[in-house]
Amino acid sequence: MAGVLDKIMRYARSPQGRRTTEQVRRAAADPRRRSQAQQLLRKFGKRR
Fold first, then answer.
1. With contact defined as beta carbons under 8 Å apart, do 23 and 17 qualify?
2. Taking burial as the number of CB atoms within 10 A of a residue's CB, which of 17, 29, 31, 43 is the most buried?
């Protein structure tokens, strides 16, 4: 399992990983995207 975490950490520190992180942060700050994510979580939360 440590190998997978190491790969994730290496990707997060890479330039491409930093760009991806920034894109996700911008999407999370958008109210429309946030409401879409909340609806999706509610939809999947009902299945449990």
1. no
2. 17
